[in-house]
């Protein structure tokens, strides 16, 4: 995946510090040790993770932590990581088994489109966040494809239609209603249709796909949605497939693209968006049928990041595999990670690129979700004890992350192929 000499240099360079929080001897604890620990930010070697109850309490040397817990697991040649965060899924809408998703290493998932549910899980079950229905134009996507007989939608549907003449007060009231009912973010559709190879341009059991172009929200309506969402401290995700929708999203200061767009976007427009801080949930694997336009769009944010990282520009990608599609795993997707690594790197892949990708699925994904849960996506003190472990070196081979040998949610072991040691 990358030059082994580079990895060797990185191993020598990573010193890692011991995190610790003073605590009384715990009634329920686990001390898990492995050759490699990715804590959500950096990699430490030959370290132990102390879990007490439903929280991470410390990451440090086994000798310093062994007296604090009698239940110990020495995993040896293995890699420990925070549980992965899937930022673009359709678990509820497609009725995917939450237990299957959790068993395959995703401990937190954000459903984007579908019934609005309050935040749930996280204590031995999949933590589920929901954006609720996608805000869309009347007669537009996604209701025109997935619910063609329902032109209005609602909080229990894939979309919620906004009439062409809806006023500012009416649009803002819809946003407030979604957030009051637990929406983790607001998702909008700016999809005019017609992109070659796009999954939404293929039949979905409802007859012919409607002819493009599809109706879009007005620019003012998009502006009002974004403004009201930001007032409440949430972010706006936009489903965009081509340049018209992308320009509208950029004009309104949309925070996140729910996909890498399918059709080619003007490179200068992409450059400006990335420099302005726009993030992209990747979903590259599931949209691979879009072809050259998708891959060209995916390359640009990575190049812009490489050019401006020294100036403080953040890595623009957030991991997302669109769980529920039949062509991707219903868990961690190693191919998605692989694509992110190579599309987001410069002329050569190095260890910092590996760390960027892993952060995009853990700590950076948590920061983008803005859940308010301290430490989510990390193995830092008082973070939720959501972690996974795989036999072998997952830093050099992403595929093995798809099949975790240990999965913990809120301190509870969901999958465990290791035996306790003394």
Automatic annotation (TrEMBL):
Iron listed as a keyword: no
Assigned keywords, A-Z: Signal
InterPro entries per UniProt: Amidohydro-rel, Metal-dep_hydrolase_composite, Metal_Hydrolase, Metallo-dep_Hydrolase
Domain Amidohydrolase-related: 79-414
Family annotation (Pfam families): Amidohydro_1
Annotated signal sequence range: 1-22
Protein name, entry field: Amidohydrolase family protein
Gene3D superfamilies to which the protein is assigned, alphabetical: Metal-dependent hydrolases, Urease, subunit C, domain 1
């Amino acid at each position: 995946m990358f030059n082994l000499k580079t990895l060797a240099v990185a191993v020598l360079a990573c010193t890692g510090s011991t995190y610790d929080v003073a605590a009384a001897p715990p009634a329920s604890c686990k001390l898990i040790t492995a050759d490699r620990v990715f804590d959500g930010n950096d990699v430490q070697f030959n370290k132990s993770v102390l879990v007490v109850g439903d929280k991470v309490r410390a990451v440090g040397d086994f000798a310093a932590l062994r007296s604090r817990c009698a239940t110990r697991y020495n995993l040896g040649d293995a890699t420990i990581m925070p549980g992965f965060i899937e930022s673009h899924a359709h678990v509820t809408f497609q009725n995917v088994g939450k237990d299957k998703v959790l068993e395959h290493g995703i401990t937190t998932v954000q459903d984007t489109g579908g019934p609005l549910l309050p935040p749930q899980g996280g204590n031995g079950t999949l933590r589920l966040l929901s954006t609720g229905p996608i805000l869309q134009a009347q007669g537009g996507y996604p209701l025109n494809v997935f619910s063609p007989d329902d032109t209005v939608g609602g909080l229990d549907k894939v979309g919620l239609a906004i009439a062409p003449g809806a006023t500012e007060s009416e649009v803002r009231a819809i946003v407030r209603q979604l957030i009051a009912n637990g929406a983790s973010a607001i998702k909008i559709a700016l999809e005019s249709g017609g992109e070659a190879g796009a999954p939404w341009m293929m039949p979905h059991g409802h007859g012919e796909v409607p002819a493009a172009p599809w109706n879009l929200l007005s620019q003012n309506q998009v502006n009002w949605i974004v403004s009201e969402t930001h007032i409440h401290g949430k972010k706006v995700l936009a489903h965009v497939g081509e340049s018209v929708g992308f320009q509208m999203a950029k004009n309104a200061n949309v925070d996140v693209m729910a996909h890498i767009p399918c059709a080619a976007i003007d490179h200068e427009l992409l450059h400006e968006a990335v420099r302005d801080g726009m993030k992209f949930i990747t979903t590259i694997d599931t949209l691979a049928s879009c072809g050259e336009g998708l891959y060209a769009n995916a390359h640009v944010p990575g190049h812009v990041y490489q050019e401006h990282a020294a100036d403080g520009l953040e890595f623009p990608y957030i991991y997302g595999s669109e769980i529920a599609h039949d062509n991707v795993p219903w868990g961690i997707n190693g191919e998605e990670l692989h694509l992110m690594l190579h599309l987001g790197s410069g002329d050569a892949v190095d260890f910092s690129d590996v760390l960027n990708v892993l952060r995009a699925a853990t700590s950076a994904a948590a920061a983008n979700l803005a859940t308010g849960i301290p430490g989510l996506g990390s193995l830092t003190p008082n973070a939720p004890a959501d972690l996974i472990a795989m036999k072998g070196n997952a830093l050099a081979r992403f595929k093995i992350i798809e099949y975790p040998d240990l999965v913990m949610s809120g301190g509870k072991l969901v999958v465990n192929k290791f035996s306790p040691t003394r």
